């Protein structure tokens, strides 16, 4: 950097460094920043192998390496956590936030009103010394990168004034946003929308609320059918070739933004040696393996928050009643800078309101309005959960799945299941995560108004009666976090055959597994996901062919079976030959679909047409010939309901619409999947296999940012991301993996699409774990960083 801008950044770096030092000094002598010596070795595909003497050093190296590959992404996210998006990029521009997208103005208002730095710092003050060291190390490593690469960063952010040093406060905010990702962050827009009624406002009656629309709103936020999904399989000694544990981890996460995975290998000689991948900005491995255990995560069905329906004082809508006693809401008014179109800065103000439960929100599409009689407040179980990373540190040192369970008892996951296998032949499933302590009786006893109570069965959103103190969450001394369900009332199991999860509840972890009564806020017996159905068909078929190997797991995942096509296309093909089909468009579509082999491979014809058809047809009421049956959840629903003329008409309309869509965008009806399905972030002609979640394809790829076919094709922006298969031999782990989108977000980096090309060819990368393996794959000089 040169001139005034460069001097500005250097001054900011100095100020930030002094701020970090001051913050460390206030935490006590044991937490003062220490001298560091960190070694970073890069191997094939840009994977960093980081060696340091302690956790602070590992985080320093992780931050530095991640910034080398993704500096612009992180710097942009720091603008978010500081609440400076409006001043930097303009108020009305869209910014990624939580699971959806909001305007920068809304994001900034959320950040300034909802992130309480004092409370967040208090949470960090009581975590382990290792976690505190991780935070300090990450800040120091990131800032060291800025110092070393000033003026030499990627084009997108080089010499930009918004690329400034990270502080401990920034880091704490990064962490806080990550733990409330499927809670208050996802509902940030609803929180900012909450305003006291200026005049008397009527609540929507239960019989006029469009629950389907409410469900669509929650789906858009990622709170229903979350885009953050995954598959994970764990096989024990009874199922594997060498009678040791084996694991397949297949998280489905965004291919863009801060929720991208990053591969890394972290070693403290003699203490810890762990490899895998992490999301965002931590100096730990979140999904991975060591010499004894391997694990993955899937987003669980557990609820992370509840809403409370407040009864208001009719004379003042900012006063609510609890057991008949008036309580005044607290308010917080903030002001922040906003850049106008001409570049000048103005000021925006916003006031948010808070209750004993949490912030007030307003969701008109769900009928949750702030009126003169009622309001709604959100209580998030993960708010302030600074210690959530501790279990990942403990997993790195675990010698068995039982060690992992012991860690989860005291440090539950935020919103994911844990699936693991160990070298001793054990397989683990645990939904030990942060869930409000509310059981079925509590739900019934504390039901709110009729309209709000109907949200749970209709959309999965839990609303409790906030006018009674005894309707707040149960407080159990055994709970790791106040107000959440204790370990002994959460589902976990260790088996020697196999276990799996694909984002349905614990109930379907294994066909023979039985469970005690567990809170409905953790999960229930309804099978909702087509991928779970696929796994409960495909895993037994895999086992029927013989003992499981890494190769067998890989081949099964990448078979790309389309469960829904297998279930409904036979009926459609039978109807296509009926005398009633006279439309030439339908005949042509039928001919194209007849060539689909039910596999979403790059060469598959008919796969694109089927997906566009099913995007519409899946929502037709009574579309299935065999509806869902709780007694037969794996094989129902199935078929197409051509027996009812009205339904049949809608099915043909959906097929006609899909065919016209392909033709309007310039595609033949029998175009191959690989000619259409491409990554969103690159124009390289990289053909992608895999299918959408709605089709039940285990290798799940989706298009949230640009849903549906366009002239640019189907542009994939989430799905199979860091996928790993891990087994064990006498020497240690045997692991092969892919980070589909590559290590770097820099378009000029060779690691932008290198692994995506592997993925396209269904090839896997053998991960180097031992010293000799790392040496054999080393690329470029070894970097040593000292302070």
Structure report:
The protein is an alpha+beta fold and 787 residues long. Helices cover 32% and strands 21% of the residues. A hairpin with a 3-residue loop joins β7 and β8. The longest helix is centred in the first third of the chain and has 27 residues, at 55-81. It starts with a helix and ends with a strand.
List low-pLDDT spans: 1-31
Average pLDDT over all residues? 92
Ends apart, CA distance between termini:
23 Å
Helical stretch count? 22
The coarse overall form would be globular
Biggest beta sheet attributes: 10 strands, mixed
Side-by-side strand order of the widest sheet: 21-19-18-10-9-8-7-2-1-30
Secondary structure tally: strands: 30
The secondary-structure class comes to alpha+beta
Radius of gyration: 26 Å
- Report helical residue fraction: 25-40%
Strand residue percentage: 15-25%
How would you summarize what this structure contains?
The chain is an alpha+beta fold. Helices cover 32% and strands 21% of the residues.
Task: Lay out the secondary structure.
Layout: H1 3-25, E1 37-43, E2 47-51, H2 55-81, H3 85-89, E3 94-97, E4 100-103, H4 104-114, H5 117-125, H6 129-148, H7 168-179, H8 188-192, H9 211-221, E5 229-235, E6 246-254, E7 261-268, E8 272-279, E9 287-289, E10 293-299, E11 305-313, E12 316-322, E13 325-328, E14 330-339, E15 345-354, E16 360-361, E17 374-380, H10 390-397, H11 401-410, E18 416-422, E19 427-430, H12 440-445, H13 450-453, H14 455-459, E20 463-465, E21 492-495, E22 498-501, H15 530-544, H16 550-557, H17 563-576, H18 584-594, H19 607-617, H20 645-664, E23 677-679, E24 701-702, E25 714-716, E26 718-720, E27 722-728, E28 733-739, H21 754-760, E29 765-766, H22 771-777, E30 783-786
Helix pairs in contact: 1-6, 2-6, 5-7, 10-11, 17-18, 18-20, 19-20
